[in-house]
């Protein structure tokens, strides 16, 4: 299996991954368990809300974004996620939307304390099938450096 190490990321380089079809059943199941707002859990109440229909929970969209990152090829040599900043949900996710994940390397630095890793900051977007962002964020990820030959 191919692996993408710290050295393989270039500032400005963009990578994309996956596609996930969001069904109303998945949206309702997730929301009923994790974010029971009426506009996430009840189709009739959702129609009467400011959203004018069922929408996915932000927590659900974020969870899908994490799932999609596992579809990157080659697989990133992730050691740990260090945090997410500026998480936004600029457009709703509706039943039937197909989501994909896109990431751009913004900056990177070698670890100051451990020579076998580095830290990279990415600008991430989850896009729907129309190319509209449904989630945006900056992620800071610790990634392994290429092992010595």
Topology readout:
Layout: E1 3-4, E2 14-21, H1 24-34, H2 38-41, H3 43-47, H4 58-69, E3 75-76, E4 78-88, E5 98-110, E6 117-127, E7 133-144
Parallel strand pairs: 1-3
Antiparallel strand pairs: 2-5, 4-7, 5-6, 6-7
The average pLDDT is 96
Shape by Cα distribution: elongated
Order of helices and strands: EEHHHHEEEEE
* Share of helical residues: 10-25%
CATH 4th-level superfamily: Hotdog Thioesterase
State which percent range the strand residues make up: 35-45%
- Name of the CATH architecture: Roll
Strand order of the largest sheet: 2-5-6-7-4
Poorly predicted parts:
none
Q: What's the CATH C level? A: Alpha Beta
Structural class: alpha+beta
Number of domains: 1
Distance between the termini: 17 Å
By DSSP (H or I, 4+ residues per run), the number of helices equals 4
- Assembly type of the shown chains? single chain
Radius of gyration: 17 Å
CATH fold-level topology? Thiol Ester Dehydrase, Chain A
Gist of the model:
This protein has 149 residues and is an alpha+beta fold. It is 21% helix and 40% strand. The model has no long low-confidence stretch (mean pLDDT 96).
């Amino acid at each position: 299996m191919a692996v993408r190490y710290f050295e393989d990321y270039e500032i400005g380089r963009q990578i994309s991954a996956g596609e996930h079809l969001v069904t109303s059943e998945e949206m309702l199941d997730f929301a009923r368990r994790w974010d029971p707002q009426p506009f996430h859990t009840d189709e009739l109440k959702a129609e009467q809300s400011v959203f004018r229909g069922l929408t996915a929970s932000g927590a659900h969209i974020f969870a899908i974004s994490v799932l999609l990152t596992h579809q990157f090829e080659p697989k990133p040599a992730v050691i740990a996620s260090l945090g997410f900043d500026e998480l936004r949900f600029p457009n709703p996710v509706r039943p039937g939307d197909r989501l994909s994940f896109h990431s751009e390397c913004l900056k990177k630095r070698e670890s100051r304390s451990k020579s076998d890793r580095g830290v990279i900051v990415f600008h991430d977007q989850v896009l729907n099938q129309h190319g509209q962002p449904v989630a945006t964020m900056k992620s800071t990820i610790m990634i392994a450096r290429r092992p010595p030959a």
